[in-house]
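From the shared-data thread, chain only:
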Amino acid sequence: MPARRKAAAVVAVGLTPLALTALAAGSASAHGSLGDPVSRVSQCYAEGPESPKSNACRAAVAAGGTQALYDWNGVRIGDANGRHQERIPDGRLCSANNDEFKGLDLARADWPATSVSSGSYTFRYRVTAPHKGTFTVYLTKPGYDPAQPLGWGDLDLSNPVATATDPVASGGFYTFSGTLPERSGKQLLYAIWQRSDSPEAFYSCSDVTFGGDSGGTASSPTPVPSASAPSEEQIEDGSDRSTVEHDGHGDDDASTSAEPVAGTASVPANDVKAAGTSQNLAETGGDGGTPYLALGGAATLAAGAAILFGSVRRRAANGGARQGR
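Structure, as tokens:
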């Protein structure tokens, strides 16, 4: 093969993976879960997926397996687009109707809980790849029974306790304020993170107790264990067992990673360069047109490769015809 033709073929072949990579990057997603008050899945992950300490987390593993806990930041619906009640039936809110996380839907009064009181509250949402979007947190109504399956009717949907749009991620968390109303005993906070740069949404259930009440009920008088979030070391140690990306966009393709969040275990808070001073898409959130720009770029690369390769083939064919005359 002549040198010119060989070089053009190499270029054409080399551009194809680049185009495919750009296409994959355009569909990537983010991940996270409520960290304070700690979500059920985060709490159980903190206890250790292989040997959780609380009865509730052991039951969750028995129902759904350990992988759900390693995938603690992946309770989501990829094409939710605000249709939360349409996509999630009663009794499946904590799993977002995802069978992998069905153990989180277990109706029991002994889920480890965070002690809270009425008044202002600072929520912290643990995130592994920030994107723009809106956080909405709902609280269960008075009379909520944790021993019954959680339904949409159990939540005070008309009065969310917190709403925040495009908060700034720092130290691995989104932080935003809300107000908890008067309640008593065991309650539940339901958080929805609806991205604005994608139809994807994330969901989490956080068990709480008001007024120092242990959360015990007549059917389950045993005091509820205190909840605790996983440490950065625990998150880092278990990331290789996860089927979703950590410090990345969050999709199943490990090659489409985003820059890590400053302040996490993998990026010290003082390492400004590693955290990305240019603020890439994952940190700024981009806008709804960003994936289409990636698709357009990929298509351009692929088309260019095809044109170049075709041109070389035509030249070779014409040259051969001339030699035959």
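The first helix runs from residue 3 to 26.
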